[in-house]
Amino acid sequence: MLTISLCMIVKNEEEVLEQCLSSVKDICDEIIIVDTGSTDKTKEIAYQFTDKVFDFEWIDDFSAARNFAFSKASMDYIFWMDADDIVSEGDQEKFKKLKAELPDNADAVSMLYHIAFDEYQNPTFSFRRNRLVRREKNFKWHGAVHEYLEVAGNIVASDVAITHRKKDKRKGQVPSDRNLKIYEKRLERGDTFTPRDLFYYSNELKDHGQYEKAIEYYNKFLDTKKGWVEDQIRACINMATCYRMLGNTENEIEALIKSIMYDVPRPEVSCRMGDLYKERRLYEKAIIWYQLACQVNPEDIPGFRQESYSTWYPYLQLCVCHWHIGNHELAVEYNKKAKEYRPNDPSVLKNEEFFKEYFAEK
């Protein structure tokens, strides 16, 4: 059976590190923790799981820290996580099965990453990342911020998922500006930004409410005509969000439509277009877009996946739209479709009660 080194970089993660390491200690044969300057009990917790705890002087470069951690690995494969990630009990069993059955020629293994959840703890936002790599291939991390692991060869898509479980921030708390400051320091130095840098810098600007500047840099990213197509699509969607926050509906629509230049409409784009027509009570036009969202299989989307936009959400909106134009039987059927995904959803249950009362009076 293959052996696995877990390689992590951490800083001030005392609240989450124990739950993270507890979820993988029976999977990994070696645990390597690289601390980049903790001032809390992070290292004490790490030593409860491993004696391989190393210090790394922080130089505003996540790739440098991750590559240092990888250099300390000694097992067949390297597995990486962040401190606010866990492997759920169900996925631990899948991981053990993967470990026992992984083909000898596998160079890397991708896993789903669940980063957002509904009130029932079902994943609502997921994407794939290369998590497990053959050590002898010497794959490297690239990028100072929002770093990525460059892999090649035989990449296996597994059914294992990593779950993001960072504790909720207090309401109204401003997101960390750490990454934004790193990008701004690089700009001040005159560093050349790659297309990926431009995209993720734009995201940081958006997340910090700098919408006009975010739009400027999203356009710079798209103008390069380079980068991953999913990032190009996401740039258009994020630009639409910026325009919405600025109250510019016309440009919001243009940004959403622009995303279709890169591939078939993503369910999120279709639903947001449907929402814009629904807000104007143009229900028949809204129906076209919501139906389009239902026709895309989320499994066919290689990038970010928001399950709601291809499952219950468009069906619930189709219910509303069809009711408004008099297609009452269709409205009932679409509400049933939405209920298949969210049986306890308040809106779905409220619709059911409304239909019951309405048809009883007929």
TrEMBL record:
One of its GO terms (molecular function) is transferase activity. TPR repeats lie at residues 267-300. Keywords: TPR repeat, Transferase. SUPFAM superfamilies: Nucleotide-diphospho-sugar transferases (SSF53448), TPR-like (SSF48452). Pfam families: Glycos_transf_2 (PF00535), TPR_8 (PF13181). Residues 5-142 form the Glycosyltransferase 2-like domain. PANTHER family: GLYCOSYLTRANSFERASE (PTHR43630:SF2), POLY-BETA-1,6-N-ACETYL-D-GLUCOSAMINE SYNTHASE (PTHR43630). This is Glycosyltransferase. It comes from Ureibacillus endophyticus.
